[in-house]
TrEMBL record:
CDD domains according to UniProt: FliM (cd17908)
Protein name, UniProt field: Flagellar motor switch protein FliM
Keyword Cell membrane recorded: yes
GO process annotations (BP): bacterial-type flagellum-dependent swarming motility; positive chemotaxis
Organism placement in taxonomy: Bacteria, Bacillati, Bacillota, Bacilli, Bacillales
Pfam family, one: FliMN_C
Family: Belongs to the FliM family.
InterPro entries: CheC-like_sf, Flag_FliM, FliN-like_C, SpoA-like_sf
Compartments reported by the entry: Bacterial flagellum basal body; Cell membrane
UniProt gene name: fliM
Keyword Cell membrane on entry: yes
Length: 332
């Protein structure tokens, strides 16, 4: 990316050239020389800034869904927010997390490969304490999980993946599924050590306990859908086509829908006195000529004009004209 100078920097550069502190010829030579930039092959850049921005947007929604989910489950104050989204080698991620932590290894079809949701022990044990009836505190010494604690952890984090599915719906419909729960990072090898991953760090606060939740997504897993993480995919509207069976089902339901059809003979206005005095055999004159067409309404909307008649001894209306959309009702 080209650096843009501020106005103060431009003024300082012009002043230096005018005073002779800098030589314009030397600057030209520097521009013509080949510039060499160091590249670390162990930290390969696989995600562009555009991809990082898209991942940030997706997981900001994920953080909001998680906040709602954990607040309801734990019945206490929970606040989760995205701290940063970065790319780094998988080996560096493993070395950065505690030796004893909660590692939720999961798959998300149709994506191929495994991902990890790492939960700091402070956060995980605060959740566990809250679910088991405690105040939501973290023990001073963290030991290995018992069988009951493992089952409780698996259940709460399995349901948390519903939030991840909802957050990714704008890009792809995934089906996250918890594969295993580990506590030792050394026993977890989902990709090669030098594989680039996207690391989404979520700052988590449960009551008075704070910690981090890290989502590790290997590049090789989401490489097939990388084009969908571009600005073009997010902001350019695409025409969605329905499957033929969906169209047929929708058409079938519409055809069975019942609508109120009203053939209006006419209207009239009478006083309350006359209305109260009506008896059988009285005649009410309508504000319409017998030669005028009848108004046929769908609900309260005028749609057709017709003429009265009978069919097989039953009163009927013959449609004579279709009223165009937006045409004014002349007789009302």
């Amino acid at each position: 990316m080209v650096d843009v100078l501020s106005q103060n920097e431009i003024d300082a550069l012009l002043a230096a050239l005018s005073s002779g502190e800098m030589d314009a010829d030397e600057l030209k030579k520097e521009d013509t020389q080949k510039k060499v930039r160091a590249y670390d092959f162990k930290r390969a850049v696989r995600f562009s800034k555009d991809h990082i921005r898209s991942l940030t947007r997706i997981h900001e929604n994920f953080a909001r869904y998680l906040t709602t989910y954990f607040s309801a489950q734990l019945r206490t104050f929970v606040q989760i927010s995205v701290v940063q989204v970065e790319q780094l080698p998988y080996d560096e991620f493993i070395r950065s997390i505690p030796k004893m932590t909660i590692l939720n290894i999961f798959e998300a079809e149709p994506l191929e490969g495994r991902m990890v949701l790492e939960v700091h022990p402070n956060v995980a044990f605060a959740m566990l304490d809250r679910l088991l009836g405690g105040a939501g505190t973290t023990p001073t010494k963290i030991n290995a999980l018992t069988e009951i604690e493992t089952i409780v952890m698996e259940r709460i984090f399995s349901r948390a993946f519903d939030s991840l599915q909802e957050a990714w719906k704008t890009v792809i419909d995934i089906q996250p599924r918890l594969e295993a729960l580990e506590t030792n990072p050394q026993f977890m090898q989902i990709v090669s050590p030098n594989e680039t991953i996207a690391l989404i760090s979520l700052s988590t606060k449960i009551g008075d306990t704070t910690g981090m939740i890290n989502l590790c997504i290997p590049h090789v897993v989401i490489e097939p859908i990388m084009p969908r993480l571009s600005v073009h995919h997010w902001f350019v509207s695409q025409k969605k086509t329905r499957a033929p069976e969906e169209v047929e089902a929708l058409q079938s339901r519409l055809e069975k829908t019942k609508l109120p059809l009203i053939a209006e003979l006419g209207t009239s206005e009478i006083s309350i006195r006359d209305f109260l005095g009506l008896t059988a055999g009285d005649v009410i004159p309508l504000q319409k000529s017998v030669e005028d067409p009848l108004q046929v309404k769908i609900g309260e909307k005028l749609k057709y004009l017709g003429s009265p008649g009978t069919v097989k001894g039953k009163m009927a209306v013959q449609i004579t004209e279709i009223v165009n959309e937006g045409e004014e009702e002349n007789d009302e």
